[in-house]
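Reading group handout, session on sequence-to-structure problems. Before we discuss, look at one worked example. The prompt was deliberately terse, the way you'd type it at a terminal:

> structure Glycerol-3-phosphate dehydrogenase

The input record follows.
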Amino acid sequence: MRQHPQSAPPNPGAKQTFAMSDVARQFQELVRESEQEAPVLYDTVIIGGGAAGAGVLRDLASRGNARAILVDRGPFGGETSSKSGKAIHPGIRYLRMGFHRILLAFKFRKDPKLKQSFAQNMWSAWQDLRLVWYGTRERNLLIETCGDTVEAMPNIVFVYPDSPESKWAVFFGISIYGLLTTIWAWPKPIARFGRVELFIDVAAVRRKLPHLGLNKILGAIRYWDGKASNDKILVLKAIRDAYFRGTPEYPLRALSYVELERYEWCADRGGGYFLVTLIRRFESAELPERIVVKARTVTNASGPWLDQVRNRGAEPDRKKTVVYSRGSHLEATNRFLHESLSANPSLQVGLVPLNPERQHYLRPFFQNGIWYIQCTTTDRAHTDPDEILPQEDEIEELLHSYNELVDDKWKIARSDIFNVFCGVRPLASSGPGEISVKDISRMFKINPHRSGDGLVFDLINVKLTEFRWAGRVLGDLIAKELRQQNRQLGKSTTHRLKFLTVEDEERFAINRPDHPRGDLNFIKEKIRHYVDYQMVCNYADYLLNSGGLRDALVFNEADRCDLDQEVLDLMLEEMGTLLQWSHQRRQREWQEFEAAYSRNMAHCDLSGRRSIAAEKCAP
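And the output record:
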């Protein structure tokens, strides 16, 4: 029996897992509940298992007496929330956008692409400055409560002659940005965030970072921010934490590979409830394909698919409430980069060139015992959330942006790229007179609307940094609605609430400093751990989104990166054995990984490779 979260927190052991077997068991429990004379009435059903949905479920779990279900049609954190730049930050560019809007409002600056009124500019400025202010708090809280999953890291912003702001304006803005952290950390200031360092010319930067080959810059400034070692794992930990805090009286369910089919308000003498139809997408010969549950509210946290989900109600409105912004990412390494970053911690710093148009972030990451560079673009308009592929010009743009900053030995080539992926972020539609996606506020938005007499909450544009904050705000709105139905929820306690851990979590953390690279027994044990505690049930998702690809990464005779087929086979074999995959299922899992990886234009070529594990029959 799981303990009540407001008493001593549960101590998950080997028998308290977070696995696909738990999903099947929960689905079976929902079937049994539906057959009871008085089925459980849930406070909300959350659609979407990314950062937004995770934040809502964890907030409700912290209240001690909520009943909620979270569902996702695929793996948790498998889409937008696993295809980010892994930044945990308030956002220096959002601070710049806020000041830019104020200058526009008072006509101290002109921008022909932003033809908006004084009130519109001031409102957008308030939203962006509010995001930075509270985002600073959220970054500090995540670093404090998430263990090693979120950590601080230094970044350096480089100012060019064509940068959108002058050198001294950038220095002033980032100094303010750094000061906010000290204010939020009071009375125990975090010294590293207060160490903003100015470099007034090229020579000053070179003395600090001799590996940079700088020609055009006017100056630079160092500041501290945060990063997640892996964005998907951060989301998984939040959902798992909430799930572990459930009790038989107040169940908190988390089901992957379960999709919303429709929802409809059903009125009765007590006020009414939603009938929510869920479809099972995982394989099972014993369980029914559909189940209907009752809920007081519906929470739509489906990210880019928000409009599709909102129109699965009994009264679809066909409104367009989101627009899309796409960002592409490449990951590259070679023996020189890995060994140099390993040997010199002072070089483990993010590089942020202040370009006139799109922002780039060029950050070093350590996963599975290997150092690599992740290069990230921001803000390109997008249309179809189901077709998200990086473009050739974006890859060239990122290579150029990084190589322009470093000297010849540190430059990366196509042969160094081992992974490329693309993510799409839903932004709140600006309505009439729509503006460019790069100018839309990044402040999350909650759109409540009625379906019948029931309340549906659409949660839009939740950044990874703000998922706890957004979850708390939405949790308060759910609690307010439930009070109208004579249902009283407890108060949110997620502020400084540490994430519950599981057995051996530190041992298998992907950013552990002493990762035993190349140890095949360790890889097998780690896969078992991830199957038991990280809901691993998909080969491609594990490799591409959970960091497993790094275990197969090797350096060839030319010291460039390549993939070790033996390790890829080992991971497929172990996963297939643990999950009892058939011969056909193993082949399908390999083919899906091969297809997904081949689309991303990485240098490592899988064409023509045979997977021995995929050809074996399951025991």
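Points for discussion. First: Residues 30-81+232-319+441-483 form a domain with the FAD/NAD(P)-binding domain fold (CATH 3.50.50.60). Second: The first helix runs from residue 20 to 34.
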